[in-house]
Amino acid sequence: MKIKTFLLSVFIIFLFNNCKNNQDDSVKANYLDFSKRDDQFTGGIKMIPISTPVGKFKVWTKTVGNNPTIKVLLLHGGPGLTHECFESFDGYFPNQSIEYIYYDQLGSYYSDQPNDNRLWTNERFVEEVEQVRKALKLDNTNFYLLGQSWGGILAMEYALKYQKNLKGLIISNMMASAPEYNKYAEEVLGPQLPPEVFNQIKTFEKNKDYTNPKYTELLFKYYYTEHILRKPLNEWPESINRAFKHINSNVYVFMQGPSEFGITGNATLKNWDIKSKLKTLTVPTLTIGAKYDTMDPEHMKWIANEVQNGRFLFCSNGSHLSQYDDQKNYFSGVIQFLRDVDSGDFKK
């Protein structure tokens, strides 16, 4: 009897693995087949109509690949930056047959750019993401949301309202509290700069002299290359330089403020804090923190423990753009998370 039970178990395992391998092979074979898609003519690009309280606009999306159970919508940072911050994903996701969608939020370079500050609210952006989801026919059998920096704020806010639509949530390099981010920037990161540099930067900010070329030079030379992307400026990827060139400064300053040491002035995100709400999230969640990030990696670890089904990924060599300066840790961790959730093997 024991032998029969053992043989039956082996047979079941064999069938399961064989079916899984056949499914994986089928996904890989069809990954780059656009022939049955309505966006073949445009190479995956769709301009999606968006309704807002002040009118109708269009936002730009581009889908890469086909995978019926893993579709990752990418929410870029800023606010007001572009999908170009994610172009390094081209080097990793296709090889794993992961479908992913580039997306420029309203106000960003490839989408419509209305000049109306009433549009730049968390609530309005959440409804925009929901409209994009519906247009792309994403649902909780396949829909993963990955938000980086400001995109992480948007991803958390979306999940708090619409987690029933999600299969998985990835919060990349973003804390759940603007006041705590401000404190970390002021008390931890700032003092790590050479004292004379930090004092000069603070003087520029005190005088609201944010457009001074010297202020920008100091930030890029001493702060950005340590905490945004840990490479010399002449080695920064062209995609990142392009994203900075395309930034919508009006949206950025209105929501984030002009300073890089926290969210300052009258910026709308200045007092944003959703820490007390995180425990209501049940969707499988990956949080990503980095050793040299502008965001406190310990806070990111805390978020992973605060949500009900969280996992923390630490990028030991990375900064704010870990998808560029710590790709080994970043992509292996993200891909593993997607695979684990997709297979039903996700564990905290």
UniProtKB/TrEMBL annotation:
Any one annotated GO CC term: membrane
Pfam families in the cross-refs: Abhydrolase_1
GO annotation, biological process: proteolysis
Organism: Flavobacterium swingsii
Active site: S149, D293, H320
Family of this protein: Belongs to the peptidase S33 family.
Transmembrane intervals: none
Residues in AB hydrolase-1 domain copies: 72-326
Molecular functions per Gene Ontology: peptidase activity
Name of the protein: Proline iminopeptidase
Keywords for the protein's UniProt record, in alphabetical order: Hydrolase
